[in-house]
């Protein structure tokens, strides 16, 4: 685990990313797709925050909005002391070296008409005043860091395997010595045999260069290996944010519990005693989310309050935040003492 006393490098506060929906002959604005809806968290310097959730929950959109590849609808994203969401285009361009991204599909993210040397060197051309010789030395240095042979410098993307192409993307992201990198499912398009190599490379680079990662993935086993803390996302909102070991040992939110029950258990004895949680109901549309909790249409522990009031993401244990009414402080009702409730309380029939 990383140093818990390290300062926050990234602060996300109330981030929203809505995509407008137009309908009718006149193409009037009739609503919004709420891809990211009021998300807040922090990432400490040198830390890896894992971001998990099912496909379509808004993980990649969140990562792109944080780097302002999309202009956020609302909220603040402070990276290394500056609010990215409010920077002018020129100031944002000067800030780009601090923050970079490794994309999901290495084939689609590399220009097929550019050589490896040109791809890695492009950020150096745009943001530095290095001479041609200095730039080539830096390109070779980056190739060495990610395990690419210098003889490949003049080859084109189609001449490389998927794992090698992802290493090219990582080298390009490292070219300007960034502090923060968004890794948007960097292993999803790779063979299983290559995934571990890329993740180990990212860990080695983090140790050597002091990098800070937002690691987006749907592979819960790989997130368990690389992340220090994990944020669980559902329908555009963070539902649980916990230290890695605590989350995998005892998930608090019902959705996190169901998500982790799907992880393969390598121990046969434990696998036989585990019970799989199968969610029922349809996934709501981000254009028309439920009035109350986003998970209320599929939650096995839903009750009346869930249908009318959105739960806030609040700390319920040291270092653990959950957006669930089961863990909120409730007003006393007749015959009850009110106070703090847990999942166990709920299961034992506490009056809510």
SSE arrangement, N to C: EEEHEEHEHHHEHEHEEHHHHEEEEH
Poorly predicted runs are: 330-352
Shape-level CATH architecture of the largest domain: 3-Layer(aba) Sandwich
Distance between the termini: 37 Å
Count of DSSP helices? 12
What's the count of strands?
Answer: 14
Main pleated-sheet profile: 8 strands, mixed
The shape is globular
The CATH top-level class label of the largest domain: Alpha Beta
Mean pLDDT over all positions = 88
Q: Oligomer, anyone?
A: single chain
CA radius of gyration: 22 Å
Helix percentage:
25-40%
At the third CATH level, what is the topology name of the largest domain? Answer: Rossmann fold
Structural class: alpha/beta
Q: In words, what does this structure look like?
A:
- The chain is α/β, with parallel strands linked by helices.
- The protein has two domains: 8-260, 3-Layer(aba) Sandwich (Rossmann fold); 285-347, no CATH class.
- Helices cover 31% and strands 24% of the residues.
- The protein is built from twelve helices and 14 strands.
- It has helices at residues 59-66, 89-95, 116-127, 132-146, 162-174, 192-209, 220-226, 244-249, 254-260, 268-273, 304-308, 343-347, and strands at 8-23, 28-44, 48-52, 74-79, 82-83, 99-102, 180-184, 212-216, 229-234, 237-243, 314-317, 320-322, 329-330, 339-340.
- The protein has an eight-stranded mixed sheet with strand order 6-7-8-3-9-10-12-11, with helices on both faces.
- β13 (329-330) and β14 form a beta hairpin.
- The chain is globular.
- Residues 330-352 have low confidence and may be disordered.
